[in-house]
Amino acid sequence: MLIPRPPTQLKTVLIVEDDPVCAALYKHCLQDLVPQLQIIEASDGYDALGKLAHFKPDLMILDLQMPSFDGLELLSLIAAKAAYSDLPVIVVSSTPAPASEIVKDLPNAHVFLKPLRPALLQKVIGELLRMSPERGPLTAGAYAGDERRLARNIAAQFYELMPERLAQLEHYVTRNDTQQLHAWCHAMIGTASVIGASALLEQVRALQSALDRDDRSHYPTACEQITREVRQFAVALDKAFDLSAADYER
User: Fold this and answer.
1) How far apart are CA 122 and CA 151, in angstroms?
2) What is the mean pLDDT of the chain?
3) pTM for the full model?
4) Which of 34, 119, 222, 235 is the most buried (most CB within 10 A)?
């Protein structure tokens, strides 16, 4: 059965991503390439399925690691449906192995590894949408790119997101909630990779390693180290992009 597109002449992209920092990067690359593009967002696989039941986008950008219904499950369903067999998909993953077997059944699927290179991402988006970039390509660099507007947008998203993330971390550590801590680490690894916070990424992976070992005595120390690193990084972003770092002050 032919699945209709939304009632618009604009190209439509579905972003399936639970991390606002990553979503901001994708939206910037899309809007910089095609200002009149229609962007629809879904926070997980369930949300995406509901939207896909009503329309077929011109392109889907899909994060592989999400809570509940993740990208792998969604890819499996898409690959099994003939109506979606030609759907262009950009799969974003921390590791190439999980997606490689599934995307081979989707001829228009491409896997991007974190940390992302905005210039390459934008080039592939243009090719999949069969468009030529209207502006020059972005160049990768600190804070997910040297292009100032993109960098400040990503920095602002990080700044707004981190107080809630730190509160969640403290709550999960206090409760020894290992399941939620695993999910928190997955989310933070994606965020830290996108924004180029290498020291923070190292601290989060140390917590992830302690979780794998079930070393609960290390959880409070890891929480303190991550909190300190986030505050330091927030101050650095404040100086670089004139953001308010009041929420991070001791």
Assistant:
1) 15
2) 79
3) 0.66
4) 222
